Amino acid sequence: MGKYSAFLKESDLFYNLTATQLELIDSICEERNYRKGDVIFQENSRESELYLILKGKVDILFDPNLVASEQKATSSPQVIATLRQGQSFGEMALIDEGLRSASANAVDKETILLRLPRHKLLLLCNSYPELGYRVMYNLSIDLAHKIRNAGLQIREALLYGAKK
């Protein structure tokens, strides 16, 4: 069994994969270590890797100044989510190769991530169609949950804002 296979097995993204499939995913994982405050990636950057949190926490931040007019550009980046061990991030850029929609910063003094490069993950998915189907299916479920949660947050903000 690979170094990360047991951890990957518990991840929602790799749910229901066989031991062999987990070994294949394990083989492309790259461990990255961060300290509190380290930037993992910046909003609007071009990286397309997927990350899994092996240890620690990660803040996902949105900078309102990037979309505000110059007259209103005064806010600091806002934390829109704090992710914990076992959770993933970076899925959107992995799928569409677009710019990062938010920044990611390490929260804990020791944050360990597994980085899955896009080209290696897609090569595995193309080479092993059953693995690719399972990973993409799980990825779509994960993204659906995140979109649904974001929708609820927007709805709450709109309702709260309307009562002011």
Structure explained in plain terms:
The protein has 164 residues and is an alpha+beta fold. It has one domain (5-119, 129-162): Jelly Rolls (Sandwich). It has five helices and eight strands. The longest helix is centred in the C-terminal third of the chain and has 34 residues, at 129-162.
What's the short story on this structure?
This protein is 40% helix and 23% strand. The chain has helices spanning 5-10, 19-28, 91-96, 118-127, 129-162, and strands at 30-34, 39-41, 50-55, 58-62, 78-83, 88-89, 103-106, 111-116.
How many alpha or pi helices? 5
Q: Cα-atom Rg, whole angstroms? A: 17 Å
Q: What is the general shape? A: globular
Reported by name, the CATH topology is Jelly Rolls
Q: Helix proportion of residues, in percent?
A: 40-55%
Say which CATH homologous superfamily is assigned: Jelly Rolls
Cα separation of the termini: 56 Å
Q: What's the β-strand tally? A: 8
Tell me, what is the CATH class?
Mainly Beta
Catalogue the unreliable spans.
none
Order of helices and strands: HHEEEEEEHEEHH
Draw up the topology in text.
Elements: H1 5-10, H2 19-28, E1 30-34, E2 39-41, E3 50-55, E4 58-62, E5 78-83, E6 88-89, H3 91-96, E7 103-106, E8 111-116, H4 118-127, H5 129-162
Antiparallel strand pairs: 1-8, 2-7, 3-6, 3-8, 4-5, 4-7
Entry keywords:
single chain, 164 residues, alpha+beta, Jelly Rolls, 8 strands, globular
